[in-house]
TrEMBL record:
Protein name: EAL domain-containing protein
Lineage: Bacteria, Pseudomonadati, Pseudomonadota, Betaproteobacteria, Rhodocyclales
Highest rank taxon of the organism: Bacteria
EAL domain sequence ranges: 24-277
Amino acid sequence: QAKKPGRTPICFFTAEMNAQVHERMRLEQDLNRVVARGELQLAFQPIFRADDGAYVGAEVLLRWRHPERGFICPATFIPLAESTGQIVAIGEWVLREAGRQLRRWLDAGLAPGYLAVNLSRVQLREDLEQLIREVLDDNDLPPQALELEITENVLLDDHQQINAVLGRLHAQGLRFSLDDFGTGYSSLSYLRRFSFDTLKIDRSFVAPLRDDAEAAALVRAIVAMAHSLALKVIAEGVETPAQQEFLKGLNCDYLQGYLLSRPLDADHFTTFLACCARKSRPAGSSPVLLQ
Ligand code: C2E
Ligand code: MG
Ligand code: MG
Ligand code: MG
C-alpha cells in the first residue's frame, strides 16, 4: 500500500467512523417507516409461578423484520430509536398491538393472563396516560391486563414528572415492574418512592446461581428485601433446571427464561395458550384474565 505508515491508523479510524455514521443514518431512515410498512412484530415470553409452574402472563418483546437485512434485534434499534425520539411512535404501536392481541386471545376463549410491556424513558410523558386509557377502552380490558416494565435508569432524572405519571397510572390499577434490577444505578430508595408491584432480577444474577455461593446470597437478599416491601419477584433468564430449583428454594415468586420457554410469535403463543387451557389447573391458579 502507498499509505504512509504513520497515518494509517487515523485513516482507518475515520473510515470506520464514517461507515458507522452511515449505517446509523440508514437505520434511522428505515425506522421512520417501520410502523407504516408493518415491519414490527411482537414476541411473547411466558412467565410462570415458581412453586407450581402455573402460567401467569407474558412479556412483550419487540422484533424488527427488516426487508433486506432480516431480523434486527432490539438491543440494536431500540437505543437508536430512543435517541431520535422514534421510540414514541414505535412504543405506541407496541402498546396498541399488545392490547389488540390480548383481545383476540380473550375472544378465542383463551386465558392470556397479563401482558408486560417494556417502556422507554421517553415514553413516560403526560400523553402516556391517554394512550393507555385508549388501549384499555378500545379492547375492553381491565387495567390489570397490562404491566409496565421500566428500568432503574429511567428513574434517574426528572423524578417529579415521571413519578406523577407513574403514580396516576398506578392509581388507575396499572401495575409496574422494575426491570433488570441490579444492573443500573439503583438506589434502594426508588423502591419506596415509586409504586412498583414487581421486581425483575436481571439474568446476570441468575446465570452464576449454580456454583456461586455469593450469587445465591445476593439473590436471597434481593428476594427478602422485595418481599419486605410487598413486591413480587420475577427471575429473568432462567436457563437450567439447577437455576430453577435454586430460585424456588430462594422464595422467588415467578420465573422467566429459555428453560421454560423462549419468546414466541403470536401463532406459537396461541398454541401455547391452548395447551395451557387443556391442562387441568388446581382451583385458584387461574391467570388474572380468565374470561
Ligand atoms: P428485557 O426487558 O430485560 O427483556 C428480556 C430479554 O432477555 C429479551 O431479549 C429476552 O429474549 C431475553 N431472554 C429471555 N429469557 C432468556 C434466557 O433464558 N437467556 C437469555 N440469554 N436471554 C433471555 P430481547 O427480546 O432481545 O430484548 C432485549 C431488550 O430490549 C429488553 O430487555 C428490553 O429492554 C428491550 N425491549 C424489547 N422490546 C421492547 C419494547 O417493546 N420497548 C422497549 N422500550 N424496549 C424493548
Ligand atoms: Mg423487560
Ligand atoms: Mg429485563
Ligand atoms: Mg434484562
